[in-house]
Input
Amino acid sequence: MEKSYQSSPLGQEISCVIGNIKKEILLNTEALILELKKILEQEGFKILDIASHKFTPQGFTVFALLGESHATIHTYPEYSSCYFSIYSCRGPTDAEKTFEKIKNYLGSEKIIFLNKNLIPVKK
Amino acid sequence: MEKSYQSSPLGQEISCVIGNIKKEILLNTEALILELKKILEQEGFKILDIASHKFTPQGFTVFALLGESHATIHTYPEYSSCYFSIYSCRGPTDAEKTFEKIKNYLGSEKIIFLNKNLIPVKK
Output
């Protein structure tokens, strides 16, 4: 018998570039991974896998594969900035709180949204 | 001596939901991973890590961590659709060809763009 699971038809993607971040926050990549994990868990996301990479001489990428899709950060210390994105297929405003918490951790209000509050219809 | 590396100030993110995809394409997850890897390599991206997960009873996620940022696919067989996104920090039109090749492989022109041709300025 085929199971009748159907995911939510609505999800949310937020992606942005955040500037004016203190260098010590961007360069402490271990703390950045721990903070991302903590925030995702607080928001009820199931972390299936975490992958990260430190670039030479600088820059860092972390990616979290979620039961509800994904979240990722790419840092650019040379610009005091990072890219952040989260996509959740759980519901239409599901990524908001995670974005707010990441922004608060990074300590900056200089944000260029690439995509926010657009609701993908999967059909 | 500190090295003077500076990444491109411009990048490109394309993210979309693609519908009307044949079930056999969405369900052949091994082929989907191979195709994503092949296309990324053809486009000169350096794949640092690949993570994937099959959901029960259906649905599949694959994520490629790139030297130039990331690409990801989440499938929704129950809607005959998938989410695709690529972010490249290499340049302002750098993700176009990868998107076109993925679209051709999936065999559908029913696309809802969440974000396309927006150029993040890292500064």
Notes: The beta strands of chain A are 12-18, 47-54, 60-66, 69-76, 81-88, 111-118. The first strand of chain A starts at residue 12 and ends at 18. The CA atoms of residues 4 and 122 of chain A lie 17 Å apart. Chain A touches chain B at residues 2-3, 5-7, 9, 11, 13, 15, 17, 19, 48-49, 51-53, 55-59, 61, 63, 65, 67, 69-70, 72, 74, 76, 78-79, 81, 83, 85, 87, 89, 112, 114-115, 118, 120-123 (CB under 8 Å).
